[in-house]
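Go through this chain for my students:
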Amino acid sequence: MNNDEKVTIKINDNGSIRVTGEVELLDGAGSPFKIGSTFSLCRCGQSNKKPFCDGTHKKIQFESAPRASE
């Protein structure tokens, strides 16, 4: 990864965690997941594709919209 590249992690309102940029995502044993340069992680805990988002948050009406403190 070029040091000038910036990884962005966005907490979507009522939804997933969106990761954009070249990162390595590892499981608890240290093995890498196969991912692209943009992917979404589950935040509601109900996805059938954990750790990835499958859109279940919409079906269960997950609500959470945290804001960064100033």
Notes: The helical segments are 56-59. The radius of gyration is 13 Å. The beta strands are 8-11, 17-20, 38-41. The CA atoms of residues 13 and 37 lie 21 Å apart.
